[in-house]
């Protein structure tokens, strides 16, 4: 299962089939997950010093297919773009990503598409859970790490770092005996080793919220 697929399951309400987080955070964290996975696979890297390109730019290291169409589409998109800071690259990656992930999960029988109409006029889609087995296992793993104190697997560490970057750790672990504040503290401690993608998500979110504040206060 892709990191981004796990995040979709965690951030989509099983019963209503609708996201529990706003579109900005959702798209940024999914983009960060894809970038992280492509980096792990050796397809992307961040430039260092003593290179022709400026340091800290996200570049394609290997353009060969990964075998996953979602990852390959992102890789192709980045290959056609000018190298830029990771936080700036996330916006273009996220467009349409959530929808494609939902469709993939539905095709595998994990979610299902429901369509109704608001006020009988406006179509609205939802993607409630059909089979929550995998998602439940992911949640148990995150709970073992953040509530019980088990050492995270690399996959769990990255999930926690990405969820922490958009402030959603307490939301995906409801009903815990640990307070929301303490969950956030523990997640932040784990997230220190979460890699550059989670940091990029946090910076991109901070920039977007700051820009929104400037616009709001100038009106």
UniProtKB/TrEMBL annotation:
Pfam families: GPP34 (PF05719). Keywords: Golgi apparatus, Lipid-binding, Membrane. It is found in: Golgi apparatus membrane. It is a peripheral membrane protein. One of its GO terms (cellular component) is endomembrane system. Transmembrane segments: none annotated. One of its GO terms (molecular function) is phosphatidylinositol-4-phosphate binding. This is Golgi phosphoprotein 3 GPP34. It comes from Georgenia muralis.
